[in-house]
Amino acid sequence: MSSLRPTLLLGLLALTACSNRLDSSAVEAAIKADIERQGRRLTLREVRCPTNILRQAEAYFRCVGELEPEGTFPINVIQQDSQGNVTWEVPNSAALLNLVSVENEIQTGLAETFSKRAYVDCGSEMYRPNQAGDRFECQIVGGLTVAGDRLDSVLVRVTPEGDLEWQEQRQSVGTPDPSTQANAEAATTDGAASAAAPANSATVAGPAVAR
What we know:
By secondary structure, the protein is of the alpha+beta class. It has 2 domains: 10-96 and 198-209, no CATH class; 97-193, no CATH class. Helices cover 19% and strands 36% of the residues.
């Protein structure tokens, strides 16, 4: 059993205004455009950020994204300096999945279960809506051979509660690999994720886009 814990995806925004406060409107527009560009059929109704944020290195705050037609998710922003350069991060939430986070957690689960490293690719999009009953497949790049089976992909399912479960898709290839047979026999191939829980405390701030 493997838990898909949220990890954070960072985006860099640079603000060049003369004021000593961040331009919240610019931050909102830049983040909204970037998430839609990197998402799978994602349309955001809006991104809302606090106003009157002073430029201050290491200061942070939270913005909120709202999906169309529904669902909100946190966006955490940290100021890198007093010049308006910030990074923003979108964790897994009840409304939005960060597929980089999902890939990392599946890779960790496979390594812990089979003592073999594998690269997992869930596609070119970075985000997708977290919708109950949704299923999608992530590829195990180059495949992974364990206990006589070849693992080429992982099927990910969103439960009715909004959690994630994943299961390796196996194909028999012949003689088992003795070095991994014991691990494979003891392993549970399902992974349950609490990734759907929104971040308890996050922060957000940000200006124009610069990846």
